[in-house]
Amino acid sequence: MKKKKILLLLITIFSTLIFSNTIYASEGSIQTLMEYSKVFDESIEPQYEKVRWYYRTVNGKKQKRLWSLTAGEWLTDWQWV
């Protein structure tokens, strides 16, 4: 019975030490991670631009204009179709 109590106590102590081990980041490693994330964010570029054609009729004739969904701006002037 005494051996079981000692064994249970040792298991509790070791498990507490193992699972409560916290890793602290140094200021230098945090700075390095921040610099890496800035470089990574700046290197991301869209592979293609999403666009949509808009149409209208003026004096019975159709016109079209290209809108960039990616940039949120017109890419062309109105063109006759």
From TrEMBL:
Superkingdom, natural source = Bacteria
| Protein's name according to its UniProt entry | Uncharacterized protein
Native source organism of the sequence = Tissierella pigra
